[in-house]
Write the structure tokens for this entry.
Amino acid sequence: VKPSALRLGPRTFEVTDRVVMAIVNRTPDSFYDRGATFAEESAMRRVHEVVAEGADIVDIGGVPAGPGADVDVGAEIERTASFVAAVRSAHPDLVISVDTYRHEVARAVCAAGADLINDPWGGVDDRLAEVAAEFDVGIVCAHAGPMAPRTRPFRVAYDDVVADVLAHTLDLAAKAVAAGVDPSRVIIDPAHDFGKNTWHSLEVTRRLGELVATGWPVLVSLSNKDFVGETLDAPVDDRVTGTLATTSVCAWLGARVYRVHQTRQTRQALDMVSAIAGDRPPRRAVRGLA
Amino acid sequence: VIAAAALCPAAPLMAAELTGDDPDAAAVRAAAADAVARIVRSGAGAVAVVTAGPVTREWPATGHADLAPYGGPRLPGGVPRVPLGLGLGGRLLDAAGFSGDRLLWTVGPADPPPLDGAAALLVMADGSAHRNLKTSTDLAARAERFDALVEKSIVDGDLTPLLAVDPALAEDLMVPGFPALRLLAAELPRAASVELLYCAAPFGVGYFVATLHI
């Protein structure tokens, strides 16, 4: 299938663009930032910062991925919707994504100006696509295996993990289009670590080209995750190098959207890969040319 | 009559090739190797390896587990495949140099297997998989209580309390191996000597390594 442009909110991303999605959590307990941007003021400061560092998309989340204190629909909306409206007004050209698996939250944030529903738990709530269609926004179709939201993988086994990822994400993408979502706004995501052990996440990375070959834009969410930590035996604060190495491999294999904590470093890694691939020229090149 | 039993975890990380050199996983494996070696040394002629499965049925004694679904190497063609717990148990018997007869059974929620002729049991089962919750939820507290009950039953040499546990509770607490634990309690309700060689939840799942003799 021939890949085509990805259209999200005010932006159109061409096939050769490598798009940085910066994580901004409105949570007190996410694994990496541990509440650094829970307060609205610090979250907005973070948005300004990541935009300056080259983020194309911000991904706002109100519920951590890991197990922890329950966050009900009302609380999740409270953490995200008004903040989306504030970001929308501060950055009209920024693509705003919201990380949620609940359609009630998706509806509230889309009404507030969000452009993309990022559902990392793989369509547990099948009404998300309806909301994306209703508001003409994008949707991320992810694979979380058999795991329920906010649980860790327990002895997950696949005959062929990539085949399972393909079957599930393509099914979700087809359902989204059938529900009326514009196909140029649909993204697929293998969801590293979600319902996967480290071997599974490594295999998904190695075989990412099979997802790219479907023609759907592929999002990868690699940032500082456990599969990087286990592979390098590195604690959570020492995984940036491994994340960037994985990012570069995914970029080379054709991933198009990168959900990250380190915006500036990711932008540099992706720009370097784009230059190697011949998709963008060096910013300056006078060496040996004088 | 079952005269002796060993209890070991049924976790994928019992296969060393899946874990790299993780020291906690290595400690669990070392304890399990020790337990099975003790059972083998005690002279059991035939050992039944049991683990929980959807239904009660016997599996080929020469079977191995395929680790590929967990990210490991693919089992060569022609080798009979058995469920993970049975394959892990078979490996432990191999490592202990056991050369007697083997019976391999999965035990489902309903029917106990016959285990005819077996003198010893190797039970591959774990405690609760809800030991990793970050928050002090009711579920985490109940999971700890369940695992504490298993631990106390082993230490006391009296497994009959496990026979009184409601299977629905075990399901709530994510104890997928519960039918195998219950089989152990039914076959060897009281032990004259026990050794609890390992009892911890380093990865959020309760592991017990123990030997029991009547």
Notes: Chain A touches chain B at residues 29, 66-69, 152, 154-159, 161, 197-200, 202-203, 230, 233 (CB under 8 Å). The mean pLDDT of chain A is 95. The two ends of chain A are 44 Å apart (CA to CA). Chain A has ten helices and ten strands.
